[in-house]
Design a protein that fits this description.
Layout (H helix, E strand, L loop, with lengths): L1 H55 L1 H7 L5 H11 L4 H21 L7 H36 L3 H8 L10 H12 L1
Helix pairs in contact: 1-4, 1-5, 3-4
């Protein structure tokens, strides 16, 4: 009879340890997943703000320059194409770079108060976006590491978690530029 109690208690202890391990690992996965989802929300919000700012510059740029403004139409098509936020962010960044070139070519635009305000808000949004991407990448890296290791990889598969790519963050480009210089 004592042997049965010992086996039963041992099994209960083993199950309790496994359940505790499962809960701890699951909570860790949920923690990083929640943080990445929150960061994605901020990124999407900032992308919308940047898109609206770029599109609001269209009338001013059209009125004060003689340039072909196809990049606005390309950006509108990209927005309506239902692509992922990473690709949309790349297209939006390219459009902002074009806007900066236009600003360099037509310095009279900077005399316009509305245009200056648009550029200021784009710069402010860029700072927020870079911070959100850095926060996302940090937490996404930790989540991806967990999804590659045992036993969290099994828990992740059960719960339907997938490994996600990072956003290209400004600090990555700065590091590459520094490597090229030396």
């Amino acid at each position: 009879m004592n042997a049965i109690y010992i086996i039963l208690i041992t099994l209960i202890i083993i199950v309790a340890v496994m359940v505790t391990l499962y809960i701890r690992k699951m909570n860790k996965l949920k923690f990083y997943k929640t943080r990445t989802v929150e960061a994605e929300g901020v990124i999407e919000k900032e992308l919308e703000i940047r898109y609206d700012l770029v599109m609001s510059s269209k009338a001013l740029v059209k009125k004060n320059t003689k340039m072909d403004l196809n990049f606005y139409e390309d950006l509108e098509k990209t927005k309506s194409a239902n692509i992922n936020t990473i690709e949309f962010e790349k297209q939006l960044t390219a459009s902002i770079a074009t806007l900066n070139v236009i600003t360099d070519d037509y310095p009279k635009l900077l005399d316009k108060k509305d245009y200056k305000e648009i550029l200021r808000k784009i710069s402010e949004s860029t700072t927020k976006l870079d911070a959100a991407k850095s926060f996302y990448n940090s937490n996404n890296n930790k989540l991806n590491e967990l999804l590659k290791k045992f036993p969290t990889n099994l828990i992740g598969k059960i719960k339907g978690y997938t490994i996600n790519p990072n956003y290209e963050a400004k600090e990555i480009f700065n590091a590459i530029e520094e490597d090229i210089r030396y």
